[in-house]
């Protein structure tokens, strides 16, 4: 009998334990329903939230402009004076009596008068520049090895050196220093100019060595002692004691090969 009563009590208490879970389930369902209602309200208030199409900018297509020439039949409007399009009247000035009507002056190209008035350079004015070119040619041989009896640019002696330098200026000098000394005009040592030939006696009484005056008291020559073309001072003891005379060639006008 007791067991039966205990069993009945348990059956009666089962609904009490099941009630909280059902209550919790119903609360969750109510929350979902409330949330769904809120979503529906938002969607109805703003229907563009779900989907908004991207708007792409439309490119402006330029309208082609057709340019037409004015028709010859179009006549200028007769607009009265005083309007914006025709603020004042254009009237030609009257021609005075005895007025001389002439054509406008022709356009004359500008001319440098100062250049026209400059005197033309004579042959003597170009003489100094020619001397400088002689010196430049002589300088090109600096350092060339000495070679007795050779007149090639790879090696040269004193007379071969001067012969090659002056050959480019239309002067064909003989082969030896003694023969070269026969040409040109005598020059005082105080009046030396660039390009003058200077002659020396070394192993005989007549000219046996020749050099080119380079200015500033120096000569350029093929030195037998140093075995090369080089500079030397005209006041150097060895050359000062053996100096004979200097000669000036008429560059550009003299061809000594025919003398």
What would a concise description of this structure say?
Helices cover 32% and strands 12% of the residues. With 259 residues, the protein is an alpha+beta fold.
Give an overview in words.
The longest helix has 44 residues. The protein has a domain of 128 residues: endopeptidase fold (from Nostoc punctiforme) (Alpha-Beta Complex), CATH 3.90.1720.10. The chain has 259 residues and is an alpha+beta fold. Strand 4 and strand 5 form a beta hairpin. A 6-stranded antiparallel sheet has the order 1-6-2-3-4-5.
Write the layout of secondary structure elements.
Blueprint: H1 2-45, H2 113-117, H3 127-139, H4 158-167, H5 177-180, E1 185-187, E2 197-200, E3 209-215, E4 218-223, E5 228-233, H6 237-242, E6 243-248
Antiparallel strand pairs: 1-6, 2-3, 2-6, 3-4, 4-5
